[in-house]
Amino acid sequence: MLESVLQQFGLSTVLEINTLKGGLINNTWKIICPDKQYILQRVNADIFSSPVNIASNIKNIGDYLQLHHPDYFFVSLIPTLKGEEVLFIPNSGYYRLFPFVEESVTYSALNNAELAFQAAVQFGRFTHLLGNFPINQLHITLPNFHNLSLRYHQFEEALKNGNELRINNATDSIQFILDHKYIADIYAQIINNPNFKLKVVHHDTKINNVLFDKNNQGLCVIDLDTVMPGYFISDVGDMMRTYLSPVSEEEKDYSQIVIREEYFKAILEGYLSEMKAELSQDELDSFVYAGKFIIYMQAMRFLTDYLLNDSYYGEQYPEHNFVRANNQIVLLQKLIEKEGFLTKMVAEVSSRY
Ligand code: GN1
Ligand code: MG
Question: Which band of pLDDT confidence, cut at 50, 70 and 90, is reported for residue 96?
Answer without folding.
Answer: very high
